[in-house]
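Example 3.2
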Amino acid sequence: MQVIFPTGPRRSPSRRRILLHSLAGAGGALFAPALIGRARAETVIRIGQIEALTGPSAAAGIRGRDGAILAAEDINAAGGLSDAKGGKFRLEVAAEDMANDPKQAVTVFRQFATDSSDNRRDRSDQFGRLRPDRADREPGQTAARRRRIRAPLKEWNGFAYRVNPVAASAVPVVLKKLVPQLHIKRLAVLYDQTQDGQVGDAEVCKKMAGGLGYEVVSVEAFRAGDQDFSPQLATIRSTKPDAIYVAAAPGGVRAVSQIREIGFEQPLLTGYGAFQDPVFWDGTKGQVKGGYTWIGQDLSSPDAQLKSFLDRYNRRFPQQATSFSIYGCDAVYTIAEAVKRAGGIDRQKIAQALSNFEFTTPLGTKISFKNPPEGDNLTPGVVVIQITGRGTYTAV
């Protein structure tokens, strides 16, 4: 998710910090600009990026990081950013690993938010304005569930924004298209309960059942790192589903393999472009072929600007570009556009610029915000695809 929060000033007067936090399960990001102090020539806006660089979602987190790096380099190569007084800004991305641990993500976020040696009085109430606790809690949740940063946000503030599609906006598109096309009357759901985006997928599958005329006949959970899925699959088999929604980050490769190994031939659906990731293809030895998922843009038929980005990305980084590469790039371009419209790096002006915001990134992603009431992108792209090969697909 893409969220902006204010922080205190950076130690050096020639630097400012912006926090970019990407939750791979939610395809997303947190931005916390350190916006106090006068802009100077060649000021560096340092983007502190929190990603899952290790763990089950590392394949997505690494791509989000690398997409952000490439966007920052492109912006700098084009002259960087300027404020209303002629000050110049250059972007710099520094990533930290949340290791697929929500507690670690919040810890690193707090460290970024308080990274300052300035003694100004307004530091004392940084957390009153920042309210980072709101990033990892939902009203009415139990203490155990509050430990997880949930994909669907139920409480927003004026510094919170998300550019990429999430379960609430994308899964309905997938189901509305595939349920009638595949004649799904009985749907089973197998989901990773440790991954917030995948929990969100399972919840949307249950919510959409009545309106689309299918029945959720089984909902089975597992944990990232599990190796044996036979108990869950035995239950699913007994319910005789027409299709199985496998809500799993790349750490769920083994689950997909076992589904096929025991002879399940039903169509497989998933979210967040997971099956399109070569990690899934390699890990299942191609058994995700024919599976369905969604991505933010159709990468198979890019325009010139998107093709240039994809080509440069694939030459530069060892991992093939996926939608998560685009999300990292779009997040940085959104920050840069907000700074431009604010005329500088004043945090209140940036928040105001984002509160009523329409923008198309250089990669063609449409971003629009209207906050209040919330910071979700009102125009996210969602393309339903069927996997045909390693990293290849056809749009449905």
